[in-house]
Amino acid sequence: MDARPNSPEARDISYHLHGYTNARKHEEAGPLVIEKGDGIYVEDLAGNRYIEAMAGLWSVAVGFSEKRLVDAAVRQMSKLPYYHDFGSKSHSPLIDLAEKLVQMAPVSMSKAYFTNSGSEANDTAMKMIWYRSNALGQPARKKIISRNRGYHGVTIAAASLTGLPNNHISFDLPIANVLHTSTPHHWREALPGESEKQFSSRLADDLEKLILAEGPETIAAFFGEPIMGAGGVIVPPAGYWEKIQAVLSKYDILLVADEVICGFGRTGEMFGSQTFGIRPDIMVLSKQISSSYLPISALLINEKMFEPIADESNRIGTFGHGFTGGGHPVAAAVAFENLKLIEERDLVGNARTVGAHLQKRLRNLASHPLVGEVRGVGLIAAVELVGDQASKAPWETAGALGGLVNGFMQQNGVISRNMGDALAFCPPLIITEPQVDQVVDAFERSLEAAVKQVGPET
Ligand SMILES: Cc1ncc(COP(=O)(O)O)c(C=O)c1O
């Protein structure tokens, strides 16, 4: 890091509080300042180039230098830089995007609603669900179930849905009415000898027990990511979603698919819901919707949601919810162009074929002494690192090995991310097989460097 007092790094330390960062350690270590990007690469201030193997935050599908998105932004910015959708106002980019999303949905959806982040979208989903329960004359139906290790964002409602300790501790969360059920992680959570299907049945039983204990008439909805992302890229075991959905429909509980990471091709299908046979009432979309060139998110809601909400807004006089920046014209125009690019270039097909190559190369490392589990689908994967393969115990403390290997990855020219000891891979959907090879080669070198540090017994 450039330690001069007026360097960008020093000014970052002086003036900027970072998200998801240890603020005291940051004062010592300083930031990695990324200055530019092209394709799957980003470059720091010193001119070091990295493969961005996390696509930023799981989001830059089309890569970091897509001129068509820049042009779409400039065109819209010149024509109508801002408008909104309050009080029946609308604008063409929002209408185009709403129509496109409803048509793309894998199940019948009625309307799109626009927000600015995944967290806001989940918050909005929760409010819509409560509003609907009141509209239907079921005011007791307010509880929401999500999962331990699920990630739904950081606003008060979304962080409550999130099932990760760091999002709750010292924030006085979760709020009331949010319940958490078991994590669908077979490798870590299954009983000895329990098959994936048996494990899925047990988790569906856990869910049913929770519903019965709370009173089915009090449970409004279940939130889940098709694949858990920030919780460590946890791929559901065989039969999981089918069995969970059977329980939900038995008690008439709504299903929200948080497609913020899986949506728009990540799993090798347009939506994770297709990969896992999920039939949601609400889909939450963000990130790859615009390749995160601009912030935008959306909810798709079905008729079961829309009809009572429309009636209630009529009874009250308005649907009292909306964001100044919701469906921002420039963000909507960029998102629309981005979705056209994903379709034209068949990036979903690329996620399938190049993703299969990524999964195969990573699985070849399964017997490495520091590797506990390799998991993933399409262009999303994680390798969970362990200090001891037999007991699945971490090296030193939980997350220490993940952090070590993640550091070596950066030295080897690849930006990855460790969630505890799970090292994640989620590259731009434009990545090629030779580029995947570069990522996995760097990972192999990083593992070897870690072996040297971890000690001879491994
Ligand atoms: C599945 C999922 N839902 C919601 C969010 C929250 O999105 P945001 O950070 O845009 O608020 C994320 C962010 O990573 C996510 O992965």
From TrEMBL:
Keywords: Aminotransferase, Pyridoxal phosphate, Transferase. Its cofactor is pyridoxal 5'-phosphate. The keyword NAD does not apply. Pfam families: Aminotran_3 (PF00202). Coiled coil: none annotated. One of its GO terms (molecular function) is adenosylmethionine-8-amino-7-oxononanoate transaminase activity. SUPFAM superfamilies: PLP-dependent transferases (SSF53383). CDD domains: OAT_like. PANTHER family: ADENOSYLMETHIONINE-8-AMINO-7-OXONONANOATE AMINOTRANSFERASE. Belongs to the class-III pyridoxal-phosphate-dependent aminotransferase family. This is Aspartate aminotransferase family protein.
